[in-house]
Amino acid sequence: MILYEMIDYSTLKVIWWVLLGVLLIAFAVTDGFDMGVGALLPFIAETDIERRVVINTIGATWEGNQVWFILGGGAIFAAWPPLYAISFSGFYLAMFVVLAAMILRPVAFKYRSKNPDPSWRSSWDWALFIGSFVPALVFGVAVGNVMLGVPYSLDNDLRMTYEGSFFGLFSPFSLLCGLLSVSMLVMHGAVWLVMRASGEIARRARKYGTIAALFAILLFALGGYLVASGYVDGFRITSEVDPNMQANPLAKQAVIEDGAWMINYATYPWLWLVPGLGFLGLFGTLVLLQTRLELLIFVFSKWAIVGIIATVGISMFPFILPSSVQPEASLTVWDASSTHRTLFNMLVVTMIFLPIILVYTAWVYKVLWGKVDEETIERDNHTAY
Amino acid sequence: MELSVVDLSRLQFAMTALYHFLFVPLTIGLSILLATMETVYVMTGREIWKRMVKFWGTLFGINFVLGVATGLTMEFQFGMNWAYFSQYVGDVFGAPLAIEGLMAFFMEATFVGLFFFGWDKLSRRQHLAATWAVAIATNFSALWILIANGWMQNPIGAEFNPDTMRMEVSSFFDVLFNPVAQAKFVHTVSAGYVTAALFMLGISAWYMLQGRHLQIAKRSMTIASAFGFASALSVVVLGDESGYEANLNQKMKLATIEAMWHTEPAPAAFNVVAWPDMENRENIFAIEVPYVMGLIATRSLDTIIPGIHELVDRSKDRIRQGAIAWDALQKIRENPDTVSEEVRETFRYNANSLGYAYLLLPYTDNPMEATTEQIDEAAWSTVPNVFPMFYAFRIMVACGFFFILLTSVFFYYSSSGKLDVLREKRRWLLHVAVWSIPLPWVACEMGWFVAEYGRQPWIIESMLPTSAGVSSLSVAEVLFTLAGFVLLYSTLLVIEVTLMIKYIRIGPDDDEAAETPPPASVRPVSGTVPVPAE
């Protein structure tokens, strides 16, 4: 059966590069507001009932959102095995920190309400904060490191050696990316609270959202400046590459080069629309936060995230994981994917199930929609978190 | 003892996986039981069934979140600790994990929110649909994970490609319909059903001993014993199917389970008790039942089951063959474009044994130059420690038969409407049920131990040794995360068990007055099993 040859191998690689972006963006857009809300929790809500209001705006749906993360892991494993292998083992301790923090989250949601003792509840509130803030920060730092290049090398058997350290991950630029990630998701979470909570909490959410949006604009602009000015080096392939080649990250030549992350914009000037979308979303959110157009703020906040993440992807294309110590071992769209057959099979499965997921997720959100306030919490005292 | 990165990584994987599987079987089984009880509620409209769903649902929730939390680690630690494995087999192994997310876990995690928060926002039928969605998705989730695991035990539908240095899918269909995966799936979900049934049975028995929540306890007991009895039968029968499959492709696992050092004339005897001695490679003593082993494992009277010594001899041949493949592979890797077709042909011919050459790498850098002693050592490294295999398997099987006995007794009392007899005259049986609650977990963990330890030294059976699959990490890094996971997981486990006990003590939200049944109408399940009124 050669059904899979219906679609070119190179086309499939690009499709899976787009799908990888779609998954990461879906994770950031959906679980992003859960993380933003969790990171805001100890500051935006003071009394227990206020905290319950905040938690219950996401309590019933956050779990489904988190699956985008798990699915992201699975999809990278299936479609980009070397990326899965090198990034998670290279960022080993950072991944451990993320997992430990994220493990706290489901437990905190569920167990907090099981005991009225204030110190019990406050502990779980901080667990929720850690489970939200830490991953938001580390994901940003990780993206920053990917843009800078990761210090790994590959031997002839494709066995990877990582030459960096945990603390080496925190450079000025990667910290900037981490803070951008935090501000972006805090903004998104605040916008969510404006939409789903009311009264005093919504008022505070507008305030925090405005501050976060300002920070995000500043950091996104600064990050862009650092890349465009050549403070951050990019990578460029210097040899001929056959986009239909079998996966072999060692079959090309590549160099580290000033401003190489700007090449795609020079070649295709319309790509400037992508960072433009990021800024439009951020400014739109900032302005609309001062109005009553709650749903519209959320739309802009979402597009801000889409624009920012997509900017990273297209700046680096075709690189997905550059190596700073052995540039020719960098992973690119063309040389780090699964086989033609697997990419095709997985595409078929995705095309069947992704629409189904979107439909039932939308339905579940519709059923559970509505403002959460102190009254609804007291009415559902028994079932609410 | 000096622990290497491989040892520590294995320890960490074993710890996190076994811990994850403390929560998974209960989720798998309880989700089905919840959906069943809610179906009765929707069909009969009797409030008591809704209260049962809510009560068992609370316990389900306390357990469920830890399954989700620890599942996160499972999804990522292949890449974290087993990077070379991930690169080597991602083309095959990644797909079922991704499909699990797409097809199963997404549905489970999305609808579980509706299960807990949708009671007042959905019609009865809609809520029932949400509950079934959780139950079905949970079971599908197990299917895809076991397809992935089954492929590691029996790597069919894939070939090694020297140009990409990895296994690549040749038949997706074969990977999906791997007989080992199918046998494992039914065996594992049945084990989950038994776990949930004994959990429900034991807690109900405890309420009966205390004379509390009797209406709910008796109904729960009826459901749990029927469901548990059917599942306990199936877990043993399907476990036997697993054993049969193991004999076809993992002969060493079977030989160590049975502590069968030497090939015997068919049909082989079954060792009931034995004292395996790894040093001298024989049993110090053994109590045998003639013929039984041969019958179970081969389902025939004349098929010979090879013993450990013979399997090791076979490994020696494959190591030599593997060394030839390894040598050809080096040549291909050096000059992929110019290497002669002859070398590629040599590789293709011997590629099946490539994994065996990796077994030599701890002893020599060049497998082609391995000495007879080195080959001997490498061949004996294919034998997992027989003692724990032998006894872990027997503990699991003993538990399995005990579950059949226990559930059948309770099934008898509940189906003949004699549950009050238990409470009045056979209280010891109720005590047995309470004390049996932990046993399914023991059986499950033993089962995984046998399945996974029993295929060592392979991470992919006969293809890639575990030691070759590991990431390039330092001992300190893995030690740090191992300590971190132990600390975090232990803390969470203590909290979980404390909460579980607290909510079991509180019991279901029943109001005993409203529960007093209208005369002659108490009909649990389908109405065919009458339970006498209090």
What report would you give on this structure?
The complex is a heterodimer of chains A (385) and B (534). Chain A has 385 residues and is mainly alpha-helical. Helices cover 68% and strands 5% of the residues of chain A. Chain A contains 13 helices and six strands. A two-stranded antiparallel sheet of chain A has the order 1-2. A two-stranded antiparallel sheet of chain A has the order 3-4. The longest helix of chain A is centred in the first third of the chain and has 36 residues, at 9-44. Chain A is globular. Chain B is mainly alpha-helical and 534 residues long. Among the domains of chain B are: 253-298, no CATH class; 308-380, no CATH class. Chain B contains 19 helices and six strands. Chain B has helices at 5-44, 47-81, 83-117, 124-153, 172-176, 179-210, 214-249, 251-257, 292-298, 308-334, 341-350, 354-358, 372-380, 386-415, 419-425, 427-435, 439-453, 475-506, 512-515, and strands at 158-161, 166-169, 270-277, 282-289, 458-460, 464-465. The longest helix of chain B is centred in the N-terminal third of the chain and has 40 residues, at 5-44. The N and C termini of chain B lie far apart (62 Å). The chains are: A mainly alpha (385), B mainly alpha (534). At the A-B interface, helix 3, helix 4, helix 5, strand 2 and helix 12 of A face helix 2, helix 3, strand 2 and helix 18 of B.
In short:
The complex is a heterodimer of chains A (385) and B (534). By secondary structure, chain A is mainly α.
